[in-house]
Each structure stands twice: as structure tokens, then as C-alpha cells.
Specification:
2 copies of one chain form a homodimer. By secondary structure, the first copy, chain A, is an alpha+beta fold. The first copy, chain A, has a single domain, classed as 2,3-Dihydroxybiphenyl 1,2-Dioxygenase, domain 1, CATH 3.10.180. Chain A has 3 helices and 8 strands, in the order βαβββαβαβββ. Chain A has an 8-stranded mixed sheet. The first copy, chain A, starts with a strand and ends with a strand. At the A-B interface, strand 1, helix 1 and strand 5 of A face strand 1, helix 1 and strand 5 of B.
Chain lengths: ~140, ~140
Amino acid sequence: MIPKFIEHIGIAVENLEESIAYYENVLGLSCYAIEEVKDQKVKTAFFKVGQTKIELLEATSDDSPIAKYIAKKGPGVHHLAFAVDHLEEQLKTIENKGVDLIDKTPRKGAEGLDIAFLHPKSTNGVLTELCENKQQ
Amino acid sequence: MIPKFIEHIGIAVENLEESIAYYENVLGLSCYAIEEVKDQKVKTAFFKVGQTKIELLEATSDDSPIAKYIAKKGPGVHHLAFAVDHLEEQLKTIENKGVDLIDKTPRKGAEGLDIAFLHPKSTNGVLTELCENKQQ
């Protein structure tokens, strides 16, 4: 596998509205989508900078993974997502290398991408996502 | 300001050698430089993925900012750096918007870039760097 680019950077925030205002008013980016992902108990806002999306994540419930992350570490970068080809094969290859997978096979993520997460204990502390865009 | 792309992602790691092995052997990236930055008390390793560099940061001393970060939050993404033009003017503009700057004027960073950090209390918890490449 050679990742093609950083597909997105997931950032845990305490207040989505305030964070959107910062990314728009200070950094000059444009929020192009706001979406609630009910099964993950998050509300998300998307920005694009070069090849990479910034995905802000606000918990919608105290038992959301994002609420737990902020309680432990404070707001900040929650995960990195790499764009790859042939995701299903890549997962088998890296599992054979001893990497602990959260998703052993791809599942559907935002924007129709196929996604899978690697466990941070296998990735030096960075929750890591691999994404394939089969629509391209 | 509209950032052009994510210039790099700084990742605090506990062990540079082990982390380089993960990025090379699992993700398939190539480490193209290892550099010690004595005044920051860090040893760094660089990879490129698309437009963006990954900069791994290992503390070389217990009073390194990276050692303090890991003691507080564990290993993970330490900062995000955006590529911008006209950095000096941008800093004045965003300071006027109430953003707390760590560097009020640009200073020299790795690879000859002009850089400045914004304080995470003004950026929703993400230590944020702006970079200008005047050599381009």
C-alpha cells in the first residue's frame, strides 16, 4: 500500500458552531456540509483544504466516542484518514503484518467512501482510517 | 487567508525508530529525512503523502515540549500546519481578529520555511502552524 494523500483529518471539538466560525473567519475555509451521523453520535462539519478535508466532530451524546475522547484528552485531532486503492486487500495484508484492525473488512463511511479503522495501539497512538473512493 | 493545503502533520511519538518502521512497513511511506532540532529538543522524521508531509517528533529530553505533550495526552497528533502565502500580513490580520499568537512574526522552521504558531486556546484545542515557502 502507498497512500495517495491525506483524505481527511478528524478533529474532536466541544462546540461545532464556534469551531466552524474559527475555521471560516480565521483560516478562511468554507464549510460545505454539516451532517449528523446518528450511529456514531456525532454532528460533523466539512471543509476542504487542498487534497484534504477537515472533518469537525461534535458529540451529540455523553456516550459518543467523541465525548469520551474529549473527556480523556481534551479537544484536538481525533483521527487521520489516508486515501488508498484496493482497501479490502490492503486490510488483509496489514493484518498479516500484525496490525490490529478495528474493521476487518471495509464498511460505508461519509460521502460514499469505503472505510476501515486501524487500532491506535498498532499505529503509535494515532487512530488511523483508510478510505477508498470506488466512485472515482 | 485561504490556506493552500495541509503542509504537514506533526505527530508526537514515544520511539522514533518503531514509528518509522510502522509508517514504512505498514503504510508503505518512505522516510526521506531524519533531523535533530536541538533548540526544540526533538528528533524528527519526515514522510510525504500527496501534498502533505508527516513529521514524527520524538523528545530528546524530558523537558522537551513533545515529552510534556506525551505525558499529558499520550502519543498522537501534536500539531497541524497549513501552507499560506503572505504569512507576515496574515499574522497581523488574525491577531486583529483576537487570535492568540505564539509567534507574532514569522521565524525560520524546518526546510527553510517561514513559520508561526497560533495558540491552541484560540484554535479549539489544535496547536496550529502556518507556513510560507518563499523559495517557491
